[in-house]
Amino acid sequence: MDEDYREFEAKTVDEAIVTAMRTFRSDFEDLEIQVISEGSKGLFGLVGTKSAKILARPARRQETQGNRPVQETGPEAPEKKGLAPEQQAVSREDMEHACRVVTEILNHMNIPSEVRIGKDNIIEVVGDGSGLLIGKRGQTLDSLQFITNRILNKNREVPFYVTVDTEGYRQRHMDHLRSMAVKMGQKVKRTGQSVFLEKMNPYDRRIIHLALKNDSQVNTKSVGDGVYKKVLIAPKRVSRS
């Protein structure tokens, strides 16, 4: 374990983080946090109960920017995971090629569908309303988009990225995330307690961060390892002790 980190243990991750904030006399955005264990209530909340554990240390300024990790603030971050970034100019020829790629992939999946060009670099797949192509939490659609962009940009000097959508899922999902971010932000301000959101991909986390970016009373931070991380929404200030 890095000697700069200190371990904190409590009933919940939130309580452990608050303890770390008080120990270092720092606000949430000034700490680097790694969750070791989220804890568990055990059988009937009595047997086998495990405490939550975290590692925390003062943030290294060159590694952070504002209240979010640097690697997730710019439009380039989603591109690295194969998710569509901010919209850019793409030629009609490239979009037609993207349509052919998506059509071929769907044929291999035994899901013959109508594929057409939408606005803002969107490839629209006309679905049957079953949600089969969307998958659980959009994972199937995300995978299709990831593979499509990998194929499109193979051996290209200047990459371009498209969004693959069906049944208007992308916009509904974005609206849901923004609404959830605002609702959870209000809860944090009302209760003074931090909340964790479920694990998300970089693109979804970025939507949460941006939705609360201008809220002066809360901070957001991604916590965890790997591609999928949780988003922690915390009060802007904590009482000193």
Brief characterization of the structure:
Helices cover 34% and strands 23% of the residues. It has six helices and eleven strands.
What does this structure look like?
The chain contains six helices and eleven strands. With 241 residues, the chain is of the alpha+beta class. Among the domains are: 1-63; 77-168, K homology (KH) domain (GMP Synthetase, Chain A, domain 3). A three-stranded antiparallel beta sheet has the order 1-3-2. Mean pLDDT is 78; it is low at 43-47 and 62-87. The longest helix has 23 residues, at 169-191. The chain is 34% helix and 23% strand. The chain has helices at residues 13-24, 76-80, 92-108, 139-152, 169-191, 202-211, and strands at 6-10, 31-37, 52-58, 64-65, 68-69, 114-117, 122-126, 163-166, 195-200, 218-223, 229-235. The radius of gyration is 21 Å and the shape is elongated. Helix 3 (92-108) crosses helix 4 (139-152) and helix 5 (169-191) packs across helix 6.
